[in-house]
Amino acid sequence: MKFQRITIDPNRMNGQPCIRNLRLTVRRVVEAVAMYPNREELKREYPELEDEDIREALAYAAANLDDKVIELATTT
């Protein structure tokens, strides 16, 4: 998958993936989506974000996660 809105510049935000060369990292967008499940609140907090920015940030994060199985404690 090619990401049109995700940019990486070693001189910006320590080379972390950002949204459209903004000083807004993919990680911060994913955190904000978790903190503001209401998209209207999210957009008020981050007015520079567009719907496609959010979608690509989530897709980029998902594409870069390993599919590891993590053992969880079970209750008896």
Structure description:
With 76 residues, the chain is mainly alpha-helical. It is 39% helix and 5% strand. The protein contains 3 helices and 2 strands, in the order ββααα. The protein has helices at residues 26-35, 39-45, 51-63; strands at residues 6-7, 18-19. Strands 1-2 form a two-stranded antiparallel ribbon. α1 (26-35) packs across α3. The protein is globular. The relative contact order is 0.18.
Q: Could you give the distance between the termini? A: 43 Å
Q: How confident is the prediction overall: mean pLDDT?
A: 91
Radius of gyration: 15 Å
The description of the largest β-sheet is: 2 strands, antiparallel
Helix content: 25-40%
Tally of strands: 2
What is the CATH C-level name?
Answer: Mainly Alpha
What ranges have pLDDT less than 50 throughout 5 or more consecutive residues? Answer: none
CATH superfamily: Winged helix-like DNA-binding domain superfamily/Winged helix DNA-binding domain
Element order, helices and strands?
EEHHH
The CATH architecture designation is: Orthogonal Bundle
Number of helices: 3
CATH topology: Arc Repressor Mutant, subunit A
Report the portion of residues in β strands. 5-15%
Q: How would you describe the shape?
A: globular
Q: What class would the helix/strand composition place it in?
A: mainly alpha
Please, what is the oligomeric state? single chain
Number of domains: 1
**Sheet with most strands: strand arrangement:** 1-2
